[in-house]
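Illustration: ATP-binding protein.
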Amino acid sequence: MEEKLIEEALAEQKEEFALKLKTDFCKRREESLVDLNSSLAQVVIGVRRSGKSTMCTNILKSGGILFGYVNFDDERLSNLKAEDLNLVLETLYKIYGDFNHLFIDEIQNISEWYLFVNRLIRQGMHILITGSNAKLLSGELATHLTGRHMQTELFPFSFAEYCACKKINTNSTTTKNRAFLRATFDDYLKDGGFPELLTEKRKQTYINSLVRNILKNDIEKRYSIKYKAAFEQLADHLLNNVPCAINYAELQNTFKLKSAHTAENYVQYLKNAYLIQGLHKYSNKSKIRVRAEKAYPVDVALMNNRENAFAGENLGWRLESIVYIELLRRYKPLEYDVYYYDENRSECDFILCKGKSVECLIQVSYDIANSKTLRRELNGLENASKATGCKKLLLLTYADEQQIEQNGLQIEVLPVWKWCVN
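Result:
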């Protein structure tokens, strides 16, 4: 590739990044997981537009270090090959001067990029990387960098971060502030946490464009999908029905796919690109944990802000999805596992585990005013408690807050908005 074009692109990127460094962005919880002084490549992955590069900007700004920056999500750099990357490095030194940290944005756009990164790590360069494809990054980094990387997953804004961006106090317990918090949660429940949606008026257009870009560019091109229309219909079907159990044979028949294995591959691609998150069934049998799985959206914005979407009408599903992503956000970095419980027609939405120890059982219900609904939710918690031995029970709702005793078990009832900011 022509050296002049590379220099032009990198120089403009430096100017753009300098403006970002002067901007105050919302602090993300995951910033503490990234160690700029580590000899391991620091990898931040997640769904497109979740704020990965912005979070890395915050980290670099507070780090007080010398660094270079390159964003490969730039059409001027789209034809780069692995052999061109040394010229990119040389140009970066020319533009930035000496540096010992390199921030590489959307690195998955360059084939065999890992050879370049591997060489820099051996030379002592501190590497910070972002990307939008889980299989590409975690799979290839583990293979080619032989464990010399640390991975951080970034989801769209949590409710606490959403409040911070809207200048809503999450610590005050005054009547007025509680009202502000609940009103803000109503917005979050409807619009989700993609950072740019806070200021974007045409939300459906934004999400439509995001989803289509992920399907067509991150998945169909990457995996050379042959039956594109069927794949996109399957993706829309899942996003319209989440949270839902995944039945590969049913998906094969519905979309006339070649096999259930093809359906399984398609679902895996959606998970790789972070459009959906899987949740496995709790069981003492490994094969049941592996096969039985539910799908959740990575953000509730995907449930309603799309053409012909209807999953967003069910507020209980939306609450459940918010809770699951918050559990992943909080506990996955601490090496916890999350499952669901389903035995003998009794269900519990989430089981939080640390190794073999079951730490907490969580049920989610939008409204428990109906005695039949309340009884179902409490019985699900009680049966899961008997099966796992766990006594820490939590029932999350839209608005209720109380303590309930059932057959010697103490069950805490909290509104989801309050649990999210605690």
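Reading the tokens back as a structure: The two ends are 52 Å apart (CA to CA).
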